[in-house]
Amino acid sequence: LPRWSCLGQTLDVCLFKFLLLLYNQLSPLRLLKSLSLLPPPLSLSLSLSLSLSLSLPPSLSTLLTDLTPEEKAQGVARAIRKQTAEVQERWERLQDHAGGWQSQVERAFERLQELQSNMNQLDLRLARAEETKAGWQPVGDLLIDSLQEHIEKTTAFKEAMAPLRQDVNVVNELSGELAPLDVQLSSTSSRQLDDLNMHWKLLQVAIEERLKVLQEAHRDFGPSSQLFLSTSVQLPWQRALSQNKVPYYINHQTQTTCWDHPKMTELYQSLADLNNVRFSAYRTAMKIRRLQKALCLDLLDLKVAQSTFEQHKLTQNAQLLTVPDVINCLTSIYDGLEQQHKDLVNVPLCVDMCLNWLLNVYDTGRSGKIRVLSMKIGLLSLSKGHLEEKYKYLFSQVASSGDKCDQRQLGLLLHDAIQIPRQLGEVAAFGGSNIEPSVRSCFQHVTNKVELEPRQFVDWMRLEPQSVVWLPVLHRVAAAETAKHQAKCNICKECPIVGFRYRSLKHFNYDVCQSCFFSGRTAKGHKLNYPMVEYCTPTTSGEDMRDFTKVLKNKFRSKKYFAKHPRLGYLPVQTVLDGDSMEMLSQSPQLSHDDTHSRIEQYTSRYCTLPSHKLCPHLVVVSDSCIFLSLSLCVSARTLQREYEQLKEQHGGQWGPGSVGLWDPEGSSHPRGPDEADLLAEAKLLRQHKGRLEARMHILEEHNKQLESQLHRLRQLLHQHRHIHAYTESSDIQILTQPQ
């Protein structure tokens, strides 16, 4: 400090500031002594400046000049201490405020950084979504077949954009957190945030609008609209829909309508050519084979059909499918077949005809509803695959979770299967529409077990039961179509034999082609009751040797042996009339068909209104089959009666009272004129057809008796349930009226 005197007045300010800084280190006395050592002008100036800077009172400031240096020093020291405490307090408050402000600024900065980062990411995602949206084709330019695919893509895009909603919410929440921090977004950031919210809303609206338009287009023009099926017919035909979406066809040329597709009508007419086949199993199988090829179901693999059912979630067998549901399933099947066989499969035509066939088989009343199980059985029966694999697939459709089925489930399977030949008018040869004897035959084959296993069902089907013998014959017909046998037909001299080959087990080197065998033609010395073996594939040397030994054995057997030991190509089932006496009505009243069916309908409707009780499977099968029989037998009886009357008229017109019979007792014919050969052939066909009609009429009569028996059993069931119900109510009343 003594050196300060040489610095002069230029150091006034610097010294004053330095003294303030050293205030805490120097005592007031030393500070004043230091001031007194300064030159007088500088000491006075510093004292005044110090008093002013420290806001000393004026009296104290005046006293500083009047008091002694020690007093001045003490007064200044007191003032300095007081002001120093205030300054120290203010400084601490300032530090606290500065620290709080710094943390607030840092927090706001972090929020701003996070907000900017999220906005940039959201902007990038929305930009990509906008690019995807810009690539959408107008709905009007899309193919009808691709509408469902675009609906699925739009739905997937909507689900992929769903997380953006959370990102938008996060950005808005971050911007909202800046308001309590007294931070306002810049105009650029605020504009970017508004644009992001606007783009997100517009994107949502665009997705919803496109999805709505696609769904409307799919509803109006997709498979459910059946619009693509309109190309299945050509002028003058037009495809139309009833109120329950069932198609029908309008012929504008004849101004008529019909349920059957024009191609289906032509197909049914062509099946009439097969009526000259003598054996009903082959006749039915050949009709079904022609139908199978027309529907392109011979191209459908069993596994593909099953996977399609699983794809459409057809697991509930009792579920009723509408016509659009059936069309969706058939479209999936034929789309896959078209990819493999483009030249053979016309999707609209195949879908429409297959739908027509399913409705003819399982919905004759055109209610627009088909059971899931019925559609499965129909498609699987006509699909391609190994025969035993088909048996297993059919069994799996009705099997329970334990891969077993009871009598009721087997009855449902056989009932749906028998509808296929029934629709072709061939059900009479397969035991009729009543499936109860077949169910009983199957369970008797497995020693009357309660449930049936797949292996046992396949073993029973290998025996070719009468009710389903047409199915294995169908496979043999398909296998024999391209088979060539190096043999010569002994009747028509065809060589090589194409198709089935029938070798006699009575004569050596006697072969018959399928045309001659089915028409019943024979050569001299060979009769129809002689044993023959069928081949649908070329024979092997082992088979030739086996047949040779059989011929040798049969050479030594008489005609009476073959008459007493007829051989059936199927397992005959016992009808209800030949069954147990407990299932028969002792004296059935002779009711007309209409009375029988009306009473069955009345009793079954009343039975459905009763409380549900668990019945034995055998009775459930009867009640189910009774309903279906009542619907089908009336139509079949009327049709057969009408055909029989027409046949009688034709027969009576050709062979009048004055005509001479041309048939000898042996059944052979001898033409007596140039035109009599044609008449004889036609009369023979008429007699065969008449015999078939009479056989079918006889079976229908048996079915009517079965209906009467089942009607009696339904009456007993109703009486039992009514008695049990009345007894239960009376017991409840007695319990309620008893004194407590």
From TrEMBL:
This protein is called Utrophin-like
GO cellular component term, pick one: postsynapse
Specify the protein's topology with respect to the membrane: Peripheral membrane protein
Q: Which residues form a coiled coil?
A: 105-132, 690-724
Question: This protein's superkingdom?
Answer: Eukaryota
Q: Where is the ZZ-type domain?
A: 484-540
**BP-aspect Gene Ontology terms:** synaptic signaling
Identify the main location.
Answer: membrane
Q: Which Gene3D superfamilies match?
A: 1.20.58.60, 2.20.70.10, 3.30.60.90, EF-hand
Q: Kindly give the InterPro entries that the UniProt entry links to this protein.
A: EF-hand-dom_pair, EF-hand_dom_typ1, EF-hand_dom_typ2, KCMF1/Dystrophin, Spectrin/alpha-actinin, Spectrin_repeat, WW_dom, WW_dom_sf
Q: Which SMART domains match?
A: SPEC (SM00150), WW (SM00456), ZnF_ZZ (SM00291)
SUPFAM superfamilies, per database record: EF-hand, RING/U-box, Spectrin repeat, WW domain
Which GO molecular function entries does the Swiss-Prot or TrEMBL record give? zinc ion binding
Q: Domain WW: where?
A: 231-264
**Keyword Repeat appears in the UniProt entry:** yes
For this UniProt entry, which residues form the secretion signal?
Answer: none
Keywords of this entry: Cell membrane, Coiled coil, Membrane, Metal-binding, Repeat, Synapse, Zinc, Zinc-finger
What subcellular compartments does it reside in?
Cell membrane; Postsynapse
